[in-house]
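Re-running the complex after MR caught last week's input typo. The corrected sequence lines follow. Everything else is unchanged.
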Amino acid sequence: MKSVKVFGPGCRRCDSAVKMVRDTATALGIDVDVVKVVDPKSIAQAGVMATPGIAVDGKLVHSGGLPDPEKLQSWLRG
Amino acid sequence: MATGHLHAPRHPAPERLWHAGVAAAGLVWVLAYRQLAALSEAAVAALPVERHSHLGEALAFFLYDVPKVMMLLLLVVFAMGVLRSFFSAERTRALLSGRAEGAGNVLAAGLGIVTPFCSCSAVPIFIGFVSAGVPLGVTFSFLIAAPMVNEVALVMLFGLVGWQVAAVYLGFGLVLAVVAGFVIGKLHLEHWLQDWVRDIQAGGAELDEERRTLPARYREGLRSVREIFGRVWIWILAGIALGAAIHGYVPEDLMVRIMGAGTWWSVPAAVLMGIPMYTNAAGVIPVVEALLGKGAALGTVLAFMMSVIALSLPEMIILRQVLTLRLIAVFIGVVGSGILAVGYLFNLLF
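Corrected-run output:
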């Protein structure tokens, strides 16, 4: 089970990012636990300055805008 | 935008193909843009409306201005998307941290234009900057310039009002961001941040900056075109429609009386009216253009526009999470005074 955190205060793009992670994981048949982090303090502590940010298993892999679909796949597989 | 270390797409189009594609698209753009006036006239002529009637004028305005602004936006948003791929919030922070005030404010305002930014990132950027040792005033210069001086605002002003006003807006927007940030820095208000913000140690995330090829940057440009268009097209249509209505139905002398240069209270009134309003540049500029056409003074209208974009209530509510009310009041006071000064100066000059 992979743990994915999506950082963002709840803007539309952050919701799209969550959906994208879920859909990609389903398509790849990977079990994921997706958590939305909306608290500004936690977002800042994770080092995210441009939202949405994405962390996989505790490692921040992306920040700012929607991720590239191919890259997202490889983070989830990796 | 920084991303983890990853592989290139499996079947990337060869680099030369991308260059050729971009060049061809550019050529098509130029040819289409040059035919735009003729095409829109032809379109209006094909409609069963008298060209010089009220409705005919409005339709001609609509059918010319909408495609023109859309085409200009397409070009500039793509170019800015490519340019922005060279910048990121992390990089900007590194450039600004520990920078002295003065030069730091100027640099911050400039970087505010090219760093990718959306208003939902305002709080994380604010904390990220302040905790990394970017002075408070320099951070404010960035946060004022980033939303206010943006390519959508500049393109719409250029397309609908003229390049002179666009240049003036760019210049004074930057000056305002620099000066307001500088003043806030000089007031030393760090103790007016929310407690947790002062104590926080923001994580310095290490995202590996991958080396990107030019085609990857083109894709970045295309992505920002998709994203920005998805967001603003409805505002452009609504704004231009409202502008067309003002063209047609607002009596000329009304605007001269309310928003003309002779009325001293019009500038502060415009600033106050702008604060609770929340729209983006795409929605407000067609209205600005129409108001100018009805005799409103340039300074008053610029003040209104800057107030709508830079001092919006929703943004204050977002910033309330990190700033105390006193600091927000100072922010509104300083930026508002700057906008007032710009407004009066313009009414005096033009």
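None of the earlier attempt is carried over here. The helical segments of chain A are 12-28, 40-45, 69-77. Chain A has one domain: 2-77.
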